[in-house]
Amino acid sequence: MERKIALVVAFCLAFLAGAASSAIADETQIYILHFKNGMSMRCDAIWRGLDDYAWCRKSGSVQGFPVTDLDMRKTFEIQPAVNQLVNKSEASFNRGDWDAAIAEASGAIALDPRTKLPSPFGQEPMRTR
């Protein structure tokens, strides 16, 4: 049981480190288009536009997707709630309130367990033999 708790704490701290890795930004914003077929796409920004399309800006390009192909609730309601919990968790982490940080990070994970967050290491760690 203690090992399980230690693993959960380590995971939550790694989650927070990924969210806190941007020293310049005040808040973490994760923009993901969620498709009805289970696929997802990370974007720099998303918005709902004209003619029943949702738009994704990624690396300077903009692409539109029919809203009939998207899980609009997950994209535009759940993801902002995840962002809010990540930001609260980051603030608790910075205050040293570990219990609140873990609870808020766990809440974000519970809302959307499939969201892939940036690695806290900035890139995939090197593998050694």
Short synopsis of the structure:
This protein has 129 residues and is α+β, with helices and mostly antiparallel strands.
Approximately what portion of the residues adopt beta-strand conformation?
15-25%
- What's the arrangement of strands in the largest beta sheet? 3-4-5
Overall mean pLDDT stands at 75
Radius of gyration: 16 Å
**SSE topology string:** HEEEEEHH
Class from secondary-structure proportions: alpha+beta
Helical region count? 3
What is the count of structural domains? 1
Indicate the overall shape. Answer: elongated
As residue ranges, the low-confidence spans are 3-25, 117-129
What is the distance, rounded to the nearest whole angstrom, between the alpha carbons of the first and last residues? Answer: 31 Å
Number of strands: 5
The major pleated sheet works out as:
3 strands, antiparallel
Percentage of residues in helical conformation:
40-55%
Helices and strands, with pairings:
Blueprint: H1 2-19, E1 31-34, E2 40-43, E3 45-48, E4 53-58, E5 61-66, H2 72-95, H3 98-111
Antiparallel strand pairs: 1-2, 3-4, 4-5
Helix pairs in contact: 1-2, 1-3, 2-3
What can you tell me about this protein's structure?
The chain is of the alpha+beta class and 129 residues long. The protein starts with a helix and ends in an 18-residue tail after the last helix. A hairpin with a 4-residue loop joins β3 and β4. Mean pLDDT is 75; it is low at 3-25 and 117-129. It is elongated and about 45 Å long. The chain has helices at 2-19, 72-95, 98-111; strands spanning 31-34, 40-43, 45-48, 53-58, 61-66. The longest helix is centred in the middle third of the chain and has 24 residues, at 72-95. It has one domain. The strands form 2 sheets. It has a 3-stranded antiparallel beta sheet with strand order 3-4-5, with no helix packed on it. A two-stranded antiparallel sheet has the order 1-2.
